[in-house]
Every structure is written in C-alpha cells, then in structure tokens.
Write a structure and sequence with these properties.
The complex is a heterodimer of chains A (about 375) and B (about 240).
Chain A (H helix, E strand, L loop, with lengths): L1 H13 L1 H21 L7 E7 L4 H12 L3 E7 L3 H8 L5 E5 L3 H6 L7 E4 L4 H26 L18 H32 L1 H7 L4 H29 L9 H25 L3 H19 L11 H8 L2 H15 L3 H32 L1
Parallel strand pairs in A: 1-2, 1-3
Antiparallel strand pairs in A: 3-4
Helix pairs in contact in A: 1-9, 2-7, 2-9, 7-9, 7-10, 7-11, 7-13, 9-10, 10-13, 10-14, 13-14
Chain B lengths: L4 E10 L2 E11 L4 E6 L5 H8 L7 E6 L2 E2 L4 H7 E4 L11 H11 L4 H14 L15 H12 L6 E5 L7 H16 L3 E5 L3 H6 L2 E6 L2 E6 L1 H8 L4 H10 L3
Parallel strand pairs in B: 3-8, 3-9, 6-7, 7-8
Antiparallel strand pairs in B: 1-2, 1-4, 4-5, 9-10
Helix pairs in contact in B: 3-4, 5-6, 8-9
Classes of the chains: A alpha/beta (about 375), B alpha/beta (about 240).
Chain lengths: ~375, ~240
Amino acid sequence: MKGFIIKEFLHIFRDLRTMLILFGMPVAQVLLFGFAITNEINHASIAVLDRAKDSKSLELQQKLTASGYFKFNAQLDHSTEIEKAFQSGKVKEVVVIPADFEKTLALGQPTAVQLINDASDPNTANLISSYTTAILMDFAANEMTQNQAMPVTTETTMLYNPELKGVFMFVPGTITILLMLVSAMMTSISIAREKEMGTMEVLLISPLKPYQIILGKVMPYVVFSFVNALVILIMAYTIFEMPINGSLLLLLAETLLFILMALSMGLFISTISNTQQTAMLLSMFALMLPTILLSGFVFPVENMPDPLQWLSHLMPSKWFIIIVKSIMLKGLGFMYIWKETLIILALAVFFVLLSIKNFEVRLNLK
Amino acid sequence: MKPVIEVENLVKKFGDFVANDSLSFSVFPGEIFGFLGANGAGKTTAIKILCGLSAPTSGKASVAGFDVYRQSEQIKKNIGYMSQKFSLYEDLTINENFQFYGGIYGLSRKVIRERTAALLSRLQFLDAKNEVLRNIPQGWKQKLAFSVAVMHQPKVVFLDEPTGGVDPITRRQFWELIYEQANQGTTIFVTTHYMDEAEYCGRVSIMVDGRIEALDTPEQLKKQFAVSSMNDVFVKLARAPK
C-alpha cells in the first residue's frame, strides 16, 4: 500500500503536464476569474450630450464620474454625433441631459434623462444602464428632498455580498470545477493509463486486492485536491477579501465529501474507458461541461428551460456551490445544508457501487 | 514428482459460448510448458483462471498446490506474470520499478535490495539502475519485466506472449533467461505465436476452439503428425476439419 502511494506520487511529480494542471491551474483560474472575467462595471466609457449646460447638469455629470464606474470619453455637442460615437466603438453609453435641466428641476416638474446603450453586448448594456439609472435615481432623490418629500422611496440592501463582488460567485464555482478536474478527471486518466499500459493486468494478478489498488490510486489525488481547495480558499480570503462567515471545519468537511464524490465519478469513468483518451473525453463532456454550464456557476439555473433545470438538479456541483456559498457568505450551519450534503453523499455511494459492479463484470467477461 | 499445475476437466462458459472445453493437463516443477493456440482459441481464458482472476464453470484446477475456486489469494502470492504488453512503468527508474513490484508482493526493503542487485547483475545491467525506463531499448525492457516477474521467487511464472515485437537476437537471449530460471526450479508456463520458440519448450499443448488437441514434447508431436517442424504441426491442427 505504502509503496503504491509512493509510486503514484512519483508518476505525478515526473510528469510536467500533470504538475501544471495540479498546481498551476488553481492559481491561474482564481486570478482569471477574480480579476479578468468579472461582470462588474469598472471604468466603462460613456459620452454625454449636455443640452442644458447648467450647474445641475454639471453636478449630475460629476456624480456619474465620481462613482468610479464610468469614464467620460467625449462631450457631444449635437445629436448627430451620437451615432458616430457608437460606431467608433469607444463609447458604451450616451447620456442625454435635456435642455433647461436646472430650471425644470427647480420648478419641481418631471424631466427625463435619456440613456442610449450599445446593446451589441446585451449583458454589458444592461449592467451599464442599471448602474446609471441607480445613480440618476439617487440624484433625483436628493433633488426631491430639497424641495418636497417623495411619496415612496426604495432602499435596497444587498445582503451577504454588499459590494456585489463577482469573485464571491466565482470562488465557489472555481473550487468546484477544480475539484472535479483534479479528482475526477485526473484519477480516471491515471487508472485508464494503467489499463492502457498493461500494468493493470499485472496489478490484478498480484496479491493486491482490488480495493487496495483503487485506494492506492486515489489517495494522492485526495491529498492534492484538498491542498488545491485550501490554496483557493486562502487566495480568496487574502487577495479578494472573501469572508468565511461560517465554520471553517464544516467547510473543509464538506469539501472532503465533495472530493470523495468526484473521485467516485472518476472511478466510474475509468471502469468504462480503456484508454487515457477515452477517459479524458468522457470527463470533459460528462463532467466538466455540465459542471460549468449547468451548475449555476456561469448561468443562473432559474433562467433555464425546465428540462435543463431538472438536469441541473443531478449535478453534484450545483449542490456543492450552494453549500460553499451558504457557509462562506451566509455563515449557515450544518442544519441548513444537510439536504445538499445528503444528495452529494448519495451520489458518491451510487457511483462507488456502480464502479464496483462494472469492475466485477469486466473481470468476469474478459 | 507432484505436479505444480493440475487441471482436470476444466470448463469455462460465457453464456452459451464454451471458451474452455474440459481441459486436462499437468505441469511439473521446473518444466517449460508451451501453451499454444490460434487467437481466440481460449488460451487467455485459461490463463486467467490459473492466475486466480476468474472462476471456472466446472472441473478441477490447482496451482502451486492451491485450489483456484477457494484459494486464489494464495495462488496470486505464488505466481509471477508477464504479459505481451510491456508491464513496467515507463516514467519510473529501473530501481523504482523493482521496489514497487517487490513491495506489492510484500518483500522487505532489504530483500528487495538484494534481489534487485542479483537480478540486474545477471542481466549485466546494474549500472543502469537509476535510468528512467522510457530511455531503455525495448529488448532490455522485456528482460527487466521478466526479472520483475520472478523477483518474489514464484513457483510458476506465466508468460503471455512475452517476446511479441522483439528482434530474433533478443528473443534468443530472452529464452536463455527462461532456461536459466527453469533450471533453478521455477515452472514456466508460456504462450507464444512463434513456432521456433515452441521448439524450445519441454512440452507443448495446442488448443483449437477451446479444446486441447495435442499435448506432448515437440519431438513426439512432430513424429505423431509426420512433419518436420512445429510450424507444420500447428498449421495441420488449426486447419483440421471440425
């Protein structure tokens, strides 16, 4: 057993590609998701067509820049320039402030600021316009209180992620993807490699029991997956200041459970594939893609058509992301996530049983 | 002398398909036993049973004194195996491969060290023990794989087409290694497609469609079929009308 695990570590340390996937990927992914792929608005370039050119319109413009979300690209003088500004591609939004802006406000009469967006990228357009609207509302509210009381005001509080940081969403997703990748894909490939090379046959004929072979193959990856999860958590905590509001111990225990589940899936894949390539493709299509697409990591599950929503319930990653978010952001205890935990546990048991069955069938038929 | 492998009316069926149709034979200690047959004749199935990997449908079989039905664990400890596929780890050094395989057979570190040294010096390969296997020529790898298969000093070694894809000179050297091992009392159970190798065996059995059609020394078989080479014996049997 001990020799087996040593051998497995040697395989990993000797292979540059494996090492890169194991250690380079987590860091790269977290940094990528954290810094590059965000759906927050930062310095979006906008243009203003100010027809009023009075003190209130200037105040509004200052308020927009002061928010930090926008960068003024151009001051337009005429409405014909709007089209040009968009065509040049330098401007994502044009804010049109009507003439007599200050006067109308002073009279307490309604006035309308027009927002024109480049919707060739609909998500960004939506985000920018909603950010702008929020600032405009704030501005309007201030004006109102100076003159008269507003009948109804809304006050939005963003619980658990007040700054709406995208990284809070990406960290649980990235942990999930990486654990899937390292645990499921790497184990299935490494077992398939033994089969492809013919060493599996020798191992089966040796006095080692099948469960010893499998434990020996799986152990190193449990260790590496766990180390990876820790690295990501530490990075999230230090670089992105993501809080861990709940119990760290519970989080780590759930992580370990998810690793075991992913390993059992990897094991299952390795029982149905005889070459490394098959194992790799199967893991890619059966594990990675659904994990990324259906887990709610990238696309919200609530917006999917019903059949896809049902399918997403079968994705262990979906439940794990819920668990991680509940613990880290909401600080919930085990009482609130036992259902999700149970689902992952059930899936793990299911795949282990299926693998054992497949393994026996293979032995008897060949 | 008590046989080391004893098989009596061994049958293995997969559904309606009879892979092994009542095989009976005995192999004695130190013998080199050739187990021949065309592809699909049922050799691999029989070897799997003898190695304790699958249970027969009916009949008796024992290896190294242990019953294949009930004592497959003990059988596994007392046999060595080397397959047509190269079975050492390409990314480990020779030494690491020996350590690993010695370890899974439960040998102590000291014993592994001693036997590795002895086996490698027999191959005159001691200097290369820290080479990664990937960098070693194919013929050598095959000899190393054989050495690993006998490191735990098994009573029987199963060689499943051990010389596939190897040049004639290396094959010759490989067979010298087999002889040397057999002289030390190890039983060699070998399958091959090379008929010149069949001539090297003490006794040869030829399987056709799941049955053993002939079993004797190469000399006797040639006499029996009135031909001059094992090749002709094999062709005659394999092509015989059913």
